[in-house]
Amino acid sequence: MPATEPTKIRNIAVAGHRGVGKTSLVEALLFEAGKTNRLGSIDQGSTVSDWDEHEQRRAMSLSGSLCHLEWKDRKINLVDTPGDAGFQADTYAALRVVEGAVVVLSGVMGVEVNTSRVWKRAEEQELSRVLFVNMLDRERADFYRVLEAARQQLSDRCVAIQLPIGSEHELTGIVDLLHMCAYLDPAGGREGGPQPIPDAMADVVEEHREKLLDAVVETDEELMGRYLEGEELDPKAVADALKQAVTRDELYPVACGVASKNLGTTALLDLLVEGVPSPAKKGTTIEFGDAKQAVFIFKTIADPFTGRISCFRVLAGPVSGDTTLVDPRTHAKERMGQVLVVQGKDSEAVEALGIGDLGAVAKLKDVVTGDVLVDHEVAVEPPHIDFPEPVMSFAVTPKAKGDEEKMAAGLRRLHEEDPTLLLHRDPQTGEQLLSGLSQMQVEVAVDRLNTRFHVEVELHPPRVPYKETIRKEARARHRYKKQTGGRGQFGDCAIVLEPLPAEDGELGYEFVDKIVGGVISQGYRPAVDKGIREAMEHGELAGAPVQGVRVLLVDGMEHNVDSSEMAFKIAGSMAFKEAYQQADPVLLEPIMELEVTVPDDNVGAVNGDLNSRRGRLQGMEPAGGMTTIKAEVPMAEILTYSQALTSMTGGRGDYSMHFLRYEEVPTHVAQKIIEQTKREREEAKV
Ligand SMILES: Nc1nc2c(ncn2[C@@H]2O[C@H](COP(=O)(O)OP(=O)(O)OP(=O)(O)O)[C@@H](O)[C@H]2O)c(=O)[nH]1
Ligand SMILES: [Mg+2]
Predict the structure, then answer these.
(1) Do 329 and 371 contact (CB within 8 A), yes or no?
(2) Ligand 1: distance of its center to the CA of 18 in Å?
C-alpha cells in the first residue's frame, strides 16, 4: 500500500470534558466506516480505543489512543484523548499533531471546565474545530441550550450544522443542514443513509439553514454576491466555503448525535472530509530543517512485553520501514524497522507513510515524547509541548523492603508514557515523591506499577518542606578545646549572623571572611564555613534547613600545635548554633498559588473552606456558570485538597496550583510544628 497523499488525510483529535462520550464517538465512527463489525461499548469494556485493562476497569480513558478509518476516499486519523484533568499530557500532545479537533460536549452539561481548557489549547495551536453535542437521548439534554452556551462561552462563531429530531428519549434522528437530509436513529446498527427531513421540522430547519448560510457566505465575498442575488447555493459550493472558513478558524460548525447508538456519524464523517482541512492545506509548525524525511514523536507507549512503541507524525517523507533516522537531541542513530499504522491496541506494518500521516514504530532506543527524528543531522529546535505542571505530590514507598530500585525503574517507564508523572527525591525530607496532575493519575500509576512491573507501593501525604531563617543580627564565639595526652584539639572563632534578604525570591547563604591580622590562618577559615553549612542543614527549631543568612567570620584564635581543620569545623558549627538561638529564628513554609474552578453554586462553600485552610483570596472570575477562584494557600493545608474539592462540588470542581514563595509560619501554627518535631526527635532517640 503506497503512502496516502497529504491532501487525502484528515488528522482529528477528539477532545473534551471527562465522560462526554469521546471514546464512544470514536467507536461509532470506526463502526460506521466499516472498520469494525460491531459497535463496542464502554460499559462492556469493548471499545477499540479504551483497550487498556485499567481504562476498562475504571470505564474512562487514561491515555491517548490512535485509530484510523477511510471515508469517501479520505484517510481519517483519529486520536481519542482522555477528558480527565489528570491525564491531559496525551491530550495536549495529540493537539500538537492534528489540524483539526472534534470538541465533544454533553447535551446535558454543555460547556464544562475541560471543554474550555481544550478549546483554549486548540485556539493557541490554531486548530480547526468542529463541535459535537452528544448524549442528546439523555434526560434534560437540550441541543439548543448547549449551542447557545458554546456561542457564549467558546466562540460566537459557533454555528449549527446539524439539528436533533425530537429530544431526550423521544429523539429519533438528526438533520444535516449542509446536505439538507435526515438520518434516523440506527439503535446501534449502521446508519441507513440519508432520509427526507420530516415535514414537522420545516420551520426550525429553515431558520437554522439560513443562519448557517449567512455565517458561511459572510466569510466568502463571491458566494455572498451570489447569495444576495437570490441564487440557490449547492451543498458543494457551501461546503467549499465552509472548509475555507473552518481552515481559517472563522467558523466552528456544531454537529450532534448519540455516540452510544451510532446516530449522527455519517453526517459527522462527511463534515470531517468536506469541512476540515488536510495536512496539505494547514500543515505543521514543527521544524525539520531541510530534512527529506522527518517524524515528530508525540506519544510513547512503554509496554513491558513488546517494548517501547513511539507514535509519530510524518513531517517530511514518505518514511518507510528499514530507514535509519537520527535524533538531533541525542545525536544517536535510530532504526525505523517497520512503520506501523495503529488501531487501538492493534498495529499493522505498512510500506510507507506520507507527509502529515500518523503512525508508530517499535523499539527505538533512546527517543522520548517530543523528539524530532531526521534523515541527516540538522539543528532543529524540538517543538515545545507545554505540558501542565504537576499539582500534587504523594510520598511513595515500596511495600517490600528492597523494591526501591524496581519501583524507580517502573516509574521511569511510566514517566516516558506520561511526562507529567514525576518521581523525585525531596532533598530536604529525603522522601521519594510521586507528583502528578491529580490523585487519580497517581493512583493509576500505582495500579500500573503493580500489574505491569509487579511492585506494590504505598502512598502517603508528603512532608512539607519547611525552612528556617533568622530575623535579627546575633553574634557568638566558640572555643573548641580538648587536651587528652598527646596532641590536643583547638579551634576558636567568633561570628556574626545577619539576615540575608532573598534574591529573586530565593533565600541564600553567604560567608564573609573578615579576619584581620591572620588570627586564624587562611587554611582553617574554609573549615569554619563548612562547619556552619553542616549546622544549617538541620535548624534548631524544627530540623528544617536554615537559609537567608549571612555569616561574618570576625575573630578567632589558633594554636600552633593543636589546631586542625576538624577543630575549626566543630568550632564554626557550635558558634553558629549559639548565635542562631539569639537571632530570632523563625519557621518558613511554602505558599502555593491555587486556582480552583467550580460551579457558581459552590463558590461560597469553597471560599469558606479555603478560609479555614489559612487561604487568602486573590480574585474571582465567573465565566458561564463556573467561577475560577484564585487564592494563596500554605502547602501544609492543601496536601489532600482533591478529596475535599470533590465532595464539595460533586466532582465538578477542578484545581491546579504551583509554588509561589516561602513565608513565615504564624506563631501558633509554628509552635505546634516545633513541638511535634521535638516529640519525633525524642521518640527517635529511644
Ligand atoms: N445515553 C448516552 N450515553 C452515552 C452516549 N455516549 C456515551 N455514553 C455513555 O457515557 C459514558 C462515558 O462515555 P465515554 O465514551 O467513555 O466518554 P469519554 O468522553 O471517552 O470519557 P473519558 O475518556 O473518560 O473522558 C459511557 O457509559 C457511555 O456508554 C450517548 O450519546 N448517550
Ligand atoms: Mg474516553
Answers:
(1) yes
(2) 9
